[in-house]
From TrEMBL:
This is Dolichol-phosphate mannosyltransferase subunit 3. One of its GO terms (cellular component) is dolichol-phosphate-mannose synthase complex. It is a multi-pass membrane protein. It comes from Nyctereutes procyonoides. The chain crosses the membrane at residues 43-62. Pathway: Protein modification; protein glycosylation.
Amino acid sequence: MTKLAQWLWGLALLGSTWAALTTGALGLELPSPCREVLWPLPAYLLVSAGCYALGTVGYRVATFHDCEDAARELQSQIQEARADLARRGMRF
C-alpha cells in the first residue's frame, strides 16, 4: 500500500467518523460541549497539519547539512575555468 493510499484511508476513516457523529447517524446524543468542539474539528486538524508541515520544513532547512568537500571541489573547478578563460584572452 502506498503512502498516498494510507493517507486517503485515514482521511476517509476520520471523515466518516466525523460525519456520523455530527449528523447523529449512530444514535448517540453527545453533550453540547462535545458537539461544539466536533463541528470545527476538520478545520482544527487542517491548521494543525499545516503547522506541523511548516515546522518540519523549517527544521529541515535549519539543520541542512552542508557538503564542504563538494563546495571546495566546485571552487577549484571555478578557479581552473577562470584560469583557462584568462589564457584564452578573457578578462575578469
